[in-house]
Write a structure and sequence with these properties.
By secondary structure, this protein is an all-alpha fold. It has helices spanning 5-21, 25-43, 60-66. Helix 1 (5-21) packs across helix 2 (25-43). The longest helix is centred in the middle third of the chain and has 19 residues, at 25-43. The chain starts with a helix and ends in a 7-residue tail after the last helix.
Length: 73
């Protein structure tokens, strides 16, 4: 796998967050969110999160499958 200094720092941070959260996904998300809030305050930024779209019968993915198109594998 190709790697560089930036990726190594990212992986170290992810491992530290996972260890801190005890491999609990909700705790991991809370910890990351807290870090984001701290960075926002320090740098005077405001990050916006986008909510995931709900899959419905009218979603493009489902329409493509139901209209006879084959899904890419």
């Amino acid at each position: 796998m190709l790697t560089n200094e930036l990726l190594e720092a990212k992986y170290r941070a992810q491992r530290a967050l996972a260890a801190q959260s005890g491999d609990d996904l909700q705790a991991y998300a809370r910890n990351v969110h807290q870090i984001v809030r701290e960075v926002e305050q320090q740098l005077g930024l405001k990050f916006r999160y986008r909510r995931a779209a709900k899959k419905t019968a009218s979603s493009p993915t489902l329409q493509a499958r139901s209209s006879g198109h084959k899904a890419a594998t």
